[in-house]
Design brief:
- By secondary structure, the chain is mainly alpha-helical.
- It has one domain.
- It has six helices and three strands, in the order H-H-H-E-H-H-E-E-H.
- The chain has a three-stranded antiparallel β-sheet with strand order 1-3-2.
- Strand 2 and strand 3 form a beta hairpin.
- The protein is elongated and about 85 Å long.
Length: 163
């Protein structure tokens, strides 16, 4: 049952229903600083970048999609590789956003302005989810085209001995 090619796609579309609330729960525990506390001229919702990175931990569940490489079917392995790109992106893109935004405070610690950064990460997550749905549709179309091509190329087998 779990060897079918669509299971990796289901995984990458359903797992965010658990990981997103878990990430939000982790975000609630972040300590918020204002600009005067860290010594910058703007912003009112600064968080330490290292703590913000920890809120991405639930997204590690996306990487379990690679278990389908062991499913034993070529089509499922291909689907897993396609979906694996999204699984890795679900970690990489938010991490890149966190590493490329923010400032170093007067205390030498890296901070990110959490309100706009969190919005950017959410939009990226939404786009990746929609991308996973689109990828599923494209993969389904590609496999259907391949199946029809193979079906048309198959020659009927004759019974008996041929001379």
């Amino acid at each position: 049952m779990f060897r079918r090619w669509y299971w990796p796609f289901l995984w990458i579309l359903i797992v965010p229903l658990a990981t997103l609330p878990a990430s939000i729960a982790l975000q609630e525990g972040l300590e918020i600083y204002d600009q005067t506390q860290i010594g910058v001229a703007y912003g009112s919702t600064w968080v330490e970048r290292d703590y913000a990175l920890r809120t991405l931990a639930p997204a590690l569940l996306n990487l379990l999609v690679f278990a389908w490489l062991l499913a034993g079917t070529i089509r499922t392995a291909w689907a897993t590789l396609w979906v694996g790109v999204i699984a890795v992106a679900r970690l990489a893109i938010p991490a890149v956003i966190l590493f490329t935004t923010g400032v170093v405070g007067a205390d030498g610690i890296h901070y990110v302005d959490w309100t706009p950064t969190r919005a950017m990460i959410f939009v990226a997550e939404l786009e990746l989810w929609l991308g996973g749905l689109l990828l599923w549709l494209l993969f389904a179309l590609a496999t259907r085209v391949q199946d029809r091509y193979v079906e048309e190329r198959m020659e009927p087998v004759e019974e008996g001995w041929s001379h």
